[in-house]
Amino acid sequence: MRRLAFLLRPGWIALALVVVAFTYLCFMVLAPWQLGKNTRTSRENHQIEYSLNTPPVSLKTLLPQQDSTARDAQWRRVTATGHYLADVQVLARLRVVEGDPAFEVLAPFVVDGGPTVLVDRGYVRPERGSHVPPIPRPPEQTVTITARLRDSEPTARGKDPFTGDGVRQVYSINTGQVAALTAIPLAGSYLQLVEGQPGGLGVIGVPHLDAGPFLSYGIQWISFGILAPIGLGYFVYSEIRAHRKEKPAPPSDKSMTVEEKLADRYGRRR
After folding, report:
1. Which residue intervals are annotated with compositional bias (Basic and acidic residues) in the record (predicted)?
2. Where are the domains of the chain?
3. pTM of the entire structure?
C-alpha cells in the first residue's frame, strides 16, 4: 500500500480528473454533436435526391391548413396558384449565395383555397455599404408558381428584426417571426422559388449532395474517448512496475567506522 501511495499525489489526481472529463466530453458532447450533424445531413441529402426525381405536387396536399408544417417533405417541389401580397416585403440579411453576400427577398403568397405561405423569391446583391438595392415588385394578379418546400429556420439569438433602407430585415427565415413582424398568419414551412417563376429573382439552388466529414469526426471522438482511459491505465501500470523494482541501496562501507569494519570482518570469519 505504501508503494501505491504515490498514486494519491495531487499530480496524479489532477491527471485522472482531466482524463475522466475528456472521456465524458468525447462520449456525451463531441461524438453526439458530430453524429447528429451527420444524421441531419444524410436526411437532407435523401430529401434533395428524392425531390430531384419526383414531379411536383399540389402545395395543398402537403400544407392543407394554415398551421401546417411539412418537415418530412423539405426540398419537395410543389405548385400553388394564388397571388402575392405585393406591398409586404421582408429581407433576410447576411446570406451567402454562391460565395458572395446577398439579401433573400421574402413575400407572403395567398394560395387559392389554401394557406398563406411565405415565399423566398430569390436573392439580390447588396449595394456598396450593404445597402438594399431596388427590388422589383412581384406580380399582383393571380399566378401559378413552382417552388421547393423548406423548413423554417431557428431565430438568430440576440439579433432582432429591424428596418433598414425602408425595408424590414431579419437574420433568419423563420415563419413565426415573419408572421409576427408583418401581422400576417403564415404556414409553418416556406417556399423557395425555382428558376423561371413569376416574381422570381436570383435563383437559389439546392445544396450539393455531400455527406461531409461528420461521421468520421464522430468516430474519431469515440476512439479518443476509448483510448484516453486506456492510456491512463497503461501509464499507471508502468509506474507501479517501476516502483516495485526499486530496492533500498545497501549501506556503503565509507559510512562505517574502523571498529564497525573490524567487527564485521572478524564476525564473518567466526
Report:
1. 256-270
2. 1-53+210-240, 55-193
3. 0.67
